[in-house]
Input
Amino acid sequence: MRARASFTRHQVDRAYVEAQHALAVDKSHRVAAAVLIDTAPATVSPAELELAVSDALHHLDVCVAMSRRFAIAGQHEEALRLARGIEVSQENWTRSIAIGEAILSRFEENYGLRIGAPKVATSRTFSQRRCNALNGHGQP
Output
């Protein structure tokens, strides 16, 4: 497949175009869908990509790539929704990894966080809600 060949040669723009052509012929093409997600420009929203590859989302690697794309865009709830949607009958360890990545991606902005350093506001809110839930003072 041309899209995969272009992708492995680091010809990202060409791989994206070739993946679009392949999906125009077969909307459920697993490799084309995965390449499209991995090579799409940042200007393409994850929602647009999800729509473009919707017929191939039942494939594990496509679903994981799409979940990762949502996480990169900061849409963590959508990333988690896709990760949890992976069929349980498929590789359970891969499903668990995808869910874990979707949950942990929410904290990537705090990568360089040191003990005692202030957290980013979104993580602080998330952490506070979890702490309150553990202490019985509200919903998680």
